[in-house]
Amino acid sequence: MQKSMLTLAVMMLATVSALTAQATKTYCNNRFGFCVDYPAELKLSADRPVNGDGVVLEAPNGIQASVSGSYNVMDWTSEKIFEFTKTDFEAVIGTAASAKETKTTGEGFDALFSAGTYYQYAQMLSKGDVYLILTITGPEELLDEMKSLHKQLKLTFDNAATGR
């Protein structure tokens, strides 16, 4: 009896775990050697990243995530790419942006920008002569959801260990 109860409990736990596990999809870009796993509820946008080489994903609540790769042909520093990313956000929103949080690493940066009532989380990773930009953009009232989405996006840059 105890054995069958234990078996039943394990089966129920496995079923609940399977139901609560969120389905994911994967987008890979062979040119720049990156992949991003994202929640299946996000839909591919008709829009493309500014450089046309990546993916734009849209959440049902209006949050937009974008991942794109670029060759660093201008040999920009992380600081220059940071400023370029901030300026691009300002152009989209139509007002000046400020950095609320910034963390630099040896391979890039993490930043949270604010412009008017909109926020953008930006992450840059670089390897060799290639860099990636991941952005998550949405209105202030969805900031917690944006942070949650950031934790769900799994970006790997394994396919370009040294760039091209």
Keywords:
164 residues, alpha+beta, Protein Transport Mog1p, Chain A, 7-stranded antiparallel β-sheet, 3-stranded antiparallel β-sheet, 3 helices, globular
Provide an overview of this structure.
27% of the residues lie in helices and 40% in strands. By secondary structure, it is of the alpha+beta class. The chain has one domain: Mog1/PsbP, alpha/beta/alpha sandwich (Protein Transport Mog1p, Chain A, 3-Layer(aba) Sandwich), CATH 3.40.1000. Strands 3-4-5-9-8-7-6 form a seven-stranded antiparallel β-sheet, sandwiched between helices. The longest helix has 19 residues, at 2-20. The N and C termini lie far apart (62 Å). Residues 5-20 and 160-164 have low confidence and may be disordered.
Quaternary structure state of the chains depicted: single chain
Biggest beta-sheet profile:
7 strands, antiparallel
Number of domains: 1
Helix share, percent = 25-40%
The CATH top-level class label:
Alpha Beta
Helix/strand order? HEEEEEHEEEEHE
**What's the gyration radius in Å?**
19 Å
Strand adjacency order, main sheet: 3-4-5-9-8-7-6
For the record, what is the CATH homologous superfamily label?
A: Mog1/PsbP, alpha/beta/alpha sandwich
Count of strand segments: 10
CATH architectural name: 3-Layer(aba) Sandwich
Q: Which fold name fills CATH's third level, the topology?
A: Protein Transport Mog1p, Chain A
Query: Termini distance?
Result: 62 Å
